[in-house]
Specification:
The protein is of the alpha+beta class and 302 residues long. Helices cover 27% and strands 22% of the residues. Strand 12 and strand 13 form a beta hairpin. Bound molecules: zinc ion.
Amino acid sequence: MNTEHLLQAAKEAGLNRARPLASNFKVGAAFEFSNGAIFSGGNTEDRGKTIVGACAERNTLAAANNQMGPLSEYGIGGTVGWRQAAVWANTPGPITPCGICRDFMSATAVTPEAQVLSQCEGPSRSIFTIGELLPLAGRGPGGDVKDEIEAWRLNGGKITQLASSDSNPLISRAMVAADRSYVPPFSNEPISGASLLTEAGETHEGFLVIDATTRLGGTAISMAVRSALVGPAERTPRVIAVGLYTKGDVLRAPTGCDLQLLQEIRAKHGDVDVMFGCDKSAYKTTLDALLPHPFGRNDLGY
Ligand SMILES: [Zn+2]
């Protein structure tokens, strides 16, 4: 399918099938898969009574998975992956997928070079690859990002290696927090911890919580954000740096979901330092580098 047809399919879905009851923000997405199939869909929101709403991109990939899946995971297993995507929104400028969608889109794309086209009600459009939108998606075994870091560096990615996890104060605090992680006995998820530094100079820690049934736990970073938000009511904490530690030899970067969360409570000015490490290595980069062209900042004003 050519680009114009895919964009048209995304627009049709956004105009006719989106259900944005809370935001009135209509979004449509269309994906072309490696077997030639096209799927499209809109975003779905309720009026705030539950948390079941989802973006157009994830709704569409979930529908494709249920009808012809399972979709492959970073090109491994499954039946198909997507090779081109289009997003349309009723906004003045083109939007980009949010961090949560970038996670799912990265995992189900046939290659990091798969293109994401975006158009809006205005004349401009944008084109990115999914690899540009989430450079450290964790394509290696167990979510390892070592190979992606090397490829990213060659492409100009701004990231530097640290001496070790315990040489960095924020990752060190995250290491202590990690030991409080809660995971069910059947899970093989490595434990992790996070530490946030706010503009006010406060630090807030979090650790991985995975529960077996309700799915209301969270990643170490999301739990640290919750801890920060439970502070004095007169102000929202603004994050200027974050450290993430994953126990073991597998090096993981913050997920797109975590990066989107940090994006929303970041300091108004300046970038956010992001440090992450495991028992073997540690790195330092920034939020703008890990989540370029973020959803929301310009389009929705936060
Ligand atoms: Zn999204």
